[in-house]
Amino acid sequence: MFTGTYTAIITPFKNGQLDDTAFERLIESQIKGGVDGIVPTGTTGESATLNYEEHIAVIENSIRFARGRTKIMAGTGGNSTTEAIYLTRAAEEAGADASLQVAPYYNRPTQEGLYQHFKAIARATKLPIILYSVPSRCAVEIGVDTVRRLAQDCKNIVGIKESGGSCDRVSALRAALGPKFLILSGDDSLTLPFMSVGAQGVVSVASNVIPREVSQIVKLFMSGKADAARRLHEKYFQFFKDLFIETNPGPVKAALAMMGRISEDYRLPLVPMARDHRDTLRTTMKRCGILK
What we know:
Blueprint: E1 4-8, E2 13-14, E3 17-18, H1 20-32, E4 37-39, H2 52-66, E5 71-75, H3 81-94, E6 98-102, H4 111-123, E7 129-133, H5 135-138, H6 144-153, E8 157-162, H7 167-177, E9 182-185, H8 191-196, E10 201-204, H9 211-222, H10 226-242, H11 250-258, H12 275-288
Parallel strand pairs: 1-4, 1-10, 4-5, 5-6, 6-7, 7-8, 8-9
Antiparallel strand pairs: 2-3
């Protein structure tokens, strides 16, 4: 089961190219921080600006650098079903543990179109599939009834990363899907609220920077120590929020660059953060004890 903390890991670049050295160091820090898994080539990994070869290379490198010490949930979705199947099969061949499948973006399919899209991908792979509903990015939500149909008809569709911002929706998913279906928060600031109504962990942006602390929040709550989890959540809440002061992954890359872990390198149309937002993020990181 893919419960716990999964880091939506960034893709470090240097002079516009994949920076494998920095990437390996980041993965080592995640493993030392105790995360349950790593999600390469998702939104935070700037998948939209990776070509096919780079996309597959990042997944392969994740698996190679992790060396079986943590799970790899490869981001292999797309707004083209053919593309998503191609990337998912490549991830399966590389040895990924699961596939994260984002809702198709821009073309705004109907719920029937979403159902047919995900069913075709599920039938093309043996990998466990975690759906990813993020309407703010995709302009479409994977409906609760659609998720239920997919889970009933496709045995390898086992969970969902929920980024709709609503505890009511998590409750509705839990009621419709039962206790075994995996629900992961897609927003660090909502992890505890979502877990209180049935989620079982998080696909985290913040754990790029503070893997141990995010892992502790989840583990404490799951072990019945809700007050201790809440105290950690309160300590880092503003940091969670400031990581979205501009479009993700701009702030998290800026944070890692401030810590000397990566070159702050993006691919257009993403650009470095505005100075005032950078100052806000730096101040918050100092207040949280992340930076001295």
